[in-house]
Design brief:
Elements: E1 2-6, H1 11-22, E2 26-31, E3 50-54, E4 69-72, H2 79-84, H3 86-92, H4 95-107, E5 110-116, H5 143-163, E6 167-172, E7 175-176, H6 187-196, E8 201-204, E9 210-212, E10 214-215, H7 216-228, E11 235-237, E12 242-244, H8 245-256, E13 262-265, H9 280-286, H10 294-321
Parallel strand pairs: 1-2, 1-4, 2-3, 4-5, 5-6, 6-11, 7-10, 8-13
Antiparallel strand pairs: 9-12
Helix pairs in contact: 3-5, 4-5, 6-8, 6-10, 8-10
The chain binds uridine-5'-diphosphate.
Uridine-5'-diphosphate binds next to helix 6 and strand 8.
Length: 322
């Protein structure tokens, strides 16, 4: 069995590559590395079942021979990143999705699209159930991501209806774990990096907005179960344990044991006030639910951040020494 994973050098994509290789699949990973990193897949490079193609999937995806599944994960996903790369984000969520779907159609194989809780925008219902259509600002700063993903969902359903492609759509809620970039700008990397380097933790707004954080191994397990299922309509995968951002910042501070200050900064425009997945569908359909408790997941992520930060320090020390 052979899978194409777009965005395979990113945070989620690289964990997906690991799990597919582990399952005995051959994996071809496409990534243009604008937000992904070769370091995330370095350990797979010597594996004969793994191949990396440094390529922008918005331009083209070319691959000879049979393919059994296309998993489309390429996209900047942190608000900071998609604000930095607005056009690239729109392109990969439109042209990239088109190229990935065309590949699945040509190879007559299954297609899974990484969608997002951002499809619900700043939701007026909570928890968010898959049948909710969302509340999205189509011209705001976050629209480059939200609308690209909504377009991707529409295109995926169209390929299913018009061409009979076997499609899956996963709506991914906030996820965390090893291989998040130290400086990707999201809440957890920022909080961990700040606390570990003795800087104040920056909470945006009053910190009363909520998120629900899912550990990466739980998320990947849910995605693979969806891939194996027969469900064509979107399925939420995320952890329904909702927490305010201020409380989250306090939890991270406690965990690091560094008594740094918490400071408040302006809330970015259109920042969703609440986000919590209704996972009844995933529970029933896939027999899936998250297992990793926040405390446990945070500890595993902290260990990764400590290691990476020590490596960064060693690198800058040796550069200074040269
Ligand atoms: N956030 C924060 N401080 C930071 C980074 C993010 O308070 O340094 C807030 C952000 O405003 C949002 C929440 O944390 O309300 C989650 O932000 P993130 O960028 O992780 O992802 P989002 O869920 O907004 O896509």
């Amino acid at each position: 069995m052979r899978a194409v994973i777009t965005g395979g050098a990113g945070f989620l994509g690289s964990h997906l590559c690991d799990q597919m290789v582990e399952r005995g699949w051959e994996v071809v990973c496409f990534d243009n590395l604008i937000t992904g990193a070769e370091a995330n897949i370095q350990h797979l490079m010597k594996n004969p079942r793994f191949r990396f193609a440094h390529q922008d999937v918005s331009q083209s995806i070319e691959i000879s021979g049979p393919v059994d599944a296309v998993l489309h994960f390429a996209s900047p996903a942190s608000p900071d990143d998609y604000l930095k790369f607005p056009i690239e984000t729109l392109k990969v969520g439109s042209l990239g999705t088109l190229n990935a779907l065309e590949l699945a159609r040509a190879k007559k194989c299954r297609f899974l699209m990484a969608s997002t809780s951002e499809c619900y925008g700043d939701p007026e219902v909570s928890p968010q159930v898959e049948t909710y259509w969302g509340h999205v600002n189509s011209i705001g700063p976050r629209s480059v991501y939200d609308e690209a993903k909504r377009f991707s969902e529409a295109l995926t359903m169209a390929y299913h209806r018009a061409h009979g492609v076997e499609t899956r759509i996963v709506r991914i809620f906030n996820t965390y774990g090893p291989r998040m970039r130290l400086n990707d700008g999201r809440a957890l990397p920022n909080f961990l990096y700040q606390a570990l380097s003795g800087q104040p933790i920056t909470v945006y707004g009053d910190g009363k907005q909520t998120r629900s954080f899912c550990y990466v191994s739980d998320l990947i397990e849910g995605i693979l179960r969806l891939l194996d299922s027969q469900e064509r309509l979107p399925v939420n995968i995320g952890n329904p344990q909702e927490i305010t951002i201020l409380e989250f910042a306090e939890r991270v501070r406690e965990l690091t044991g560094n008594g740094v200050q918490i400071v408040f900064r302006p809330l970015p425009q259109d920042d969703p006030k609440r986000r919590c997945p209704d996972i009844a569908k995933a529970r029933k359909l896939l027999g899936w639910e998250p297992r990793v408790e926040l405390q446990e997941g945070l500890k595993l992520t902290l260990a990764y951040f400590e290691k990476r930060m020590a490596e960064e320090r060693a690198k800058s020390g040796s550069q200074r020494g040269n």
